[in-house]
Design brief:
Elements lengths: L1 H24 L4 H17 L3 H8 L1 H4 L2 H19 L2 H28 L7
Helix pairs in contact: 2-5, 5-6
């Protein structure tokens, strides 16, 4: 069990550490770095490289945005296998719908609990 925690921390920490290096050492805006991470996850999943990383790092590999890109690619690939070309569009959306919905719902709840007041 301790080994699993260490693996998750190692992979998740490595992804976050590399992202932090990009933020500190480049002039890229954080939003662009987030897009790079999602696209990198798609590319690594499409190339078959992300699956061994996922098996080793478990939640450490799925929680960062690179894991969201992996889920999009995996869903699109499965969608193509099941529904053909239209599955390339619907598969990624189906695979990530629960995560996107949870993010929207929890963001709404937090906005209702913590009402922000603008300074004038």
């Amino acid at each position: 069990m301790l080994l699993t925690y260490l693996q998750v921390f190692l992979v998740g920490g490595l992804i976050c550490g590399l992202s932090e290096i990009l933020i500190v050492r480049t002039k890229l805006m954080p939003a662009r770095i987030l897009v790079i991470l999602v696209v990198l996850g798609v590319i690594l999943q499409g190339a078959g490289i992300y699956e061994p990383i996922y098996k080793f790092g478990k939640a450490g590999a799925t929680v960062p945005l690179i894991g969201f890109g992996r889920a999009l690619a995996k869903g699109a690939i499965e969608g193509v296998n099941q529904k053909g070309l239209i599955g390339a569009i619907t598969g990624g959306l189906t695979a990530t719908a629960a995560g996107i919905t949870a993010a929207i719902v929890f963001a709404y709840i937090m906005a209702m609990i913590f009402n922000h007041h603008y300074k004038k």
